[in-house]
Design the sequence.
């Protein structure tokens, strides 16, 4: 059974919430990833359960659609013995006009220890920290941050390259409207990786220089350079009235889609994607299913990484 070395066990993790990776140090991130190794091994046991959160009640507050994040948080919570309540905006009193503030105060009155929140507005998780005592975990807020996704992405990269220092990561696609890219750049830079962002100029944010990553408009150039190629979905739901950011999805695939011909020409890079994938747009279907893709590993690792975060933010007492 995996256990933690004394140095890791003694790290003074002092974070109370997970709002984004901007507030987390390199050591905080490495500590979470180290803890996640322990929980990843638990998932492979015949009975993949621990009673770590058996006295905790957690609400999953989802105002936006989700498959991976929502299910993996719920699975992580149940694997750890927590009482779990799921809130979906589409079937709640939000539809009758109840505000977010009143909703969270109502839920908090039921003695909740932790809140996992996804919302279309940047900053909602920060707002909730001022409304309730519970620990808040950001499961994606608009185009701001998606910190648990970036942590599971870095965990998956570490399975290939245990030390990410100097590793070359290309993030390709809709940079402007992606929260995954922001959390990944923040986290990867703290771990010493080199990051290049690649996509159409219309999908590159005005503030791209402030992210601290290089920029390229040339897919072939970055695929020849990188160790990891992370493709991103075109976030049509966040582009709002800004239509025609790309001429067509077909043309986008021709310019920025990763295809089998790229895997053959550049034999070294690994393919990642946070999901959901639009096959035939950012990735050719055969690329998703190829042995160069670790997309399903990302999903499995997401449960372990979220177990580690829940454990640490609940006070870090393992049974
Ligand atoms: N990667 C991700 O956040 O996926 P979901 O929207 O399905 O949760």
Sequence:
């Amino acid at each position: 059974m995996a256990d933690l070395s004394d140095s890791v066990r003694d790290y003074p993790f002092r974070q109370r919430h997970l709002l984004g990776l901007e507030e987390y140090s390199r050591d905080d991130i490495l500590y979470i990833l180290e803890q996640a190794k322990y929980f990843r091994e638990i998932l492979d046991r015949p009975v993949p359960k621990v009673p770590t959160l058996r006295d905790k009640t957690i609400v999953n507050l989802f105002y936006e659609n989700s498959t991976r994040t929502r299910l993996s948080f719920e699975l992580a919570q149940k694997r750890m013995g927590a009482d779990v309540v799921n809130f979906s905006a589409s079937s709640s009193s939000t539809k009758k006009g109840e505000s977010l503030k009143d909703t969270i105060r109502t839920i908090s009155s039921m003695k909740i220890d932790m809140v996992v929140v996804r919302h279309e507005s940047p900053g909602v998780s920060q707002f909730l920290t001022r409304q309730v005592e519970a620990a808040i975990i950001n499961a994606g807020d608009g185009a701001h941050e998606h910190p648990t996704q970036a942590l599971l992405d870095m965990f998956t990269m570490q399975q290939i390259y245990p030390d990410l220092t100097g590793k070359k990561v290309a993030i390709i696609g809709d940079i402007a409207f992606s929260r995954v890219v922001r959390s990944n750049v923040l986290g990867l830079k703290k771990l010493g990786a080199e990051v290049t962002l690649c996509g159409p100029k219309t999908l590159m944010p005005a503030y791209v220089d402030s992210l601290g990553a290089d920029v390229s408009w040339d897919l072939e150039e970055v695929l020849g350079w990188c160790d990891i190629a992370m493709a991103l979905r075109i976030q049509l739901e966040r582009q709002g009235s800004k239509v025609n950011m790309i001429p067509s999805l077909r043309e986008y695939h021709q310019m920025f889609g990763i295809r089998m011909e790229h895997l053959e020409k550049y034999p070294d890079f690994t393919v990642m994607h946070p999901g959901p994938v639009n096959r035939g747009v950012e990735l050719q279907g055969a690329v998703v299913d190829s042995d160069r893709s670790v997309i399903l590993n990302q999903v499995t690792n997401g449960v372990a990484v979220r177990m580690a975060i829940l454990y640490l933010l609940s006070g870090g007492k393992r049974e």
